[in-house]
Amino acid sequence: MAKITLRNLAHSYLPHPKSEKDFALKEMDHVWQDGGAYALLGSSGCGKTTLLNIISGLVRPSQGRVLFGDTDVTDAPTAARNIAQVFQFPVVYDTMTVRDNLAFPLRNLGKDAGYIAQRVDAIARMIGMEESLGRKAQGLTADAKQKISLGRGMVREDVNAILFDEPLTVIDPLMKWELRTQLKSLHRQFGHTMIYVTHDQTEALTFADKVVVMYDGRVVQMGTPEELFERPAHVFVGYFIGSPGMNLFDARIEGNRAHLAGGAVDLGAAYDPLGGHTQIGIRPEHAVLTAETGLPVRILRVEDVGRHRLVRAELDGQPLNVVAPEGMAIGADLTHVSFAPQKISVYADDWRVAARNEASAGGRAA
Amino acid sequence: MEKTQNNRAWFLVLPVLVVVAFSAVIPLMTVVNYSVNDTFGNNQFFWAGLEWFEEMVTSSRLHEALLRQILFSAIILAIEVPLGIFIALNMPKGGFWASLCLILMALPLLIPFNVVGTIWQIFGRVDIGLLGHTLAALGIDYNYTNDPLDAWITVVVMDVWHWTSLVALLCYAGLQSIPQAYYQAAKIDQASRWAVFRYIELPKMKGVLLIAVLLRFMDSFMIYTEPFVVTGGGPGNATTFLSIDLVKMAVGQFDLGPAAAFSIMYFLVILLVSWVFYTVMTNMDRSQSDIPEAL
């Protein structure tokens, strides 16, 4: 087990990348602490899988170094990195039994039979496949095959890290929840570094201690689920995390006030003069519909989503979502919206700007 | 919905029946007719019953030809299948070199059988052939026209040259269809090269290998043109395979009855062996997937 450092890393699938656009992964420096449970979150095609494959050595980065602890493994083949990876779609060795599939990585390492049998039994219990150990893997259902893939990923105890590439895509919802819990407890028990790629924020937020959000080949923010929710460092994090995502409005920032929609809102803190495209962001949870205070809005419809209601509205032609608490009467008299000043984030050219009195934390991430 | 019964629909399959009748059934029946009759020409036939079949079954000439045939098929399968797999595994996976390889590999398959025979007939000649002459110059006593072993080696090498490409191309197609994820998983699992071959490539190639083995078996078991052109079945009867013997009997000696009986048995043997091959290999597949063990 080791800390994984990505130094100056970038990757392009083209042999001679010309501009930054040609890079699937833009230059980044990143450290994955030993024993951390990370979720790598981002929409499809943002470079999550590329990053994972670079760590496991399936892809050699165009530039930069990959370090395991203090050892440079950039040029080391996958087998030498002692790493486990589970892919999005199940990969099983068809002609082998379930037992042999699970034992395969250990047999390749030449472990003794007693140890292998004990590990295979433990893993089979974990993935709930003790009953079918003697069966051929061919002809099993997709989720059974994926459980085998997961099991193969976890069967080695001494791996440097376990990488999961959207591993639960093909698993049914109940089993999904169960397996995620298993992974989490496995992490607590053995303390492997785990990196879990997903585009499902619930999955990411429940699995990980630290969530790494990627956008367009860049890591835009790394933080705890709370940090991502409260202080999104990039507008992408704002609307990707949360359901629905953050409301964003073009606004002119002046000191501690933002001017928009013919009115102004209090920002709760003063900002230095900003250039570029400026926006303010507010979570639907932190917006309140009122009769007259705040900015004028037009309510389009109200959706009951169970624990609370979601109000779809329009503010100066731009869509606005507001979470209304249970029991609150929503009538025609609610014509304005007010924002909790402390909860407003200010963005300039998509990146969060720290207020004058705010520490640099939560500012632009590398 | 009610189904309309219209027996006139049968007329639609008539063209197929006519074609099959002319291309297969009628010629085959002619052979059957010859096999149970004796004839001296002039379209006069005398009923012979199973006499020709009895004669052929006990004929030592046919036994020897059959043994040579089995030996030949066994040797070329033993060489071409592993060699084809080996070549397929080592071919480039894409790009210019892959295309070049594919073209080069396909070339022997496109050459008419007669021409293949002629090429090797000349290639192996000690006086003017590049191969024969070179071997002679190296002091190796090689002459396919009077040494049975040399004749065998020449015929086998010729077949390997001609047909290994087919096995290689089929295997290559099988290999190309393996998703990259399997190789990646194998790397993650730290599998050796052998394990990758044994547990990923071989199982995925099984379907095409079955076809390759069947095709190569059937073709080699029926081989006629190439060895006939190179050795004419000689020296002596050393390379007289079933087809060559059959032609000698039917055309050379005009023994139409025995030749017809021979043909029918020959056909049945090929059918039987192919069926056995196919059944064994598809059953192997089934037994691997359908064991409802402990469920």
**CATH-assigned homologous superfamily of the largest domain in chain A:** P-loop containing nucleotide triphosphate hydrolases
CATH topology of the largest domain in chain A: Rossmann fold
| Oligomeric status | heterodimer
Q: What is the name of the CATH architecture of the largest domain in chain A?
A: 3-Layer(aba) Sandwich
Computed structural class of chain A: alpha+beta
Topology summary:
The complex is a heterodimer of chains A (366) and B (295).
Chain A: E1 4-11, E2 25-32, E3 37-41, H1 48-56, E4 63-68, E5 71-72, H2 78-81, E6 84-86, H3 98-108, H4 113-127, H5 142-154, E7 161-165, H6 173-190, E8 193-198, H7 201-207, E9 210-215, E10 218-223, H8 225-230, H9 235-240, E11 247-250, E12 252-254, E13 257-260, E14 263-266, E15 278-282, E16 287-290, E17 295-296, E18 298-304, E19 309-315, E20 318-324, E21 336-339, E22 345-348, E23 351-353
Parallel strand pairs in A: 3-8, 3-9, 6-7, 7-8
Antiparallel strand pairs in A: 1-2, 1-4, 4-5, 9-10, 11-15, 12-13, 13-14, 15-22, 16-21, 17-21, 18-19, 19-20, 22-23
Helix pairs in contact in A: 3-4, 3-5, 4-5
Chain B: H1 14-35, E1 37-39, E2 45-47, H2 51-57, H3 60-90, H4 96-110, H5 113-123, H6 130-137, H7 148-176, H8 180-188, H9 193-221, H10 225-230, H11 242-252, H12 256-289
Antiparallel strand pairs in B: 1-2
Helix pairs in contact in B: 1-12, 2-12, 3-7, 3-9, 4-7, 7-9, 9-12, 11-12
